[in-house]
Amino acid sequence: MKYSVVIEKISDDTLPEGYYYAFIPALDLTTQGLGIDGAKAAAKDLLELWIAEKKANGEKVPEESESFFSQLEVAHAV
User: Fold this and answer.
1) Which of 10, 22, 36, 78 could form a disulfide with 43 if both were Cys (CB 3.0 to 4.6 A apart)?
2) What would the pLDDT profile of 4-43 be if each residue is shown by its tens digit?
3) 28, 47 in Cβ contact below 8 A?
4) What are phi and psi of 19, to 5 degrees?
């Protein structure tokens, strides 16, 4: 199974400098880790645990069909 992960640098004071969010949109899961590799590793761990729990409970595990990523630029509101 493959899932897209969006990595975003954390730019507020919730965690120390150098931490990144890892978001798995298809499952609405979010975690964080130190550096990009740390965030990806945390996302993989979370994904594996989440899938194992779903299977243990006899629940269906959704699969991602297609994923696209884009950025939009908007003017700052005054």
Assistant:
1) 22
2) 999 999 988 877 889 999 999 999 999 999 999 999 999 9
3) no
4) -90, 150
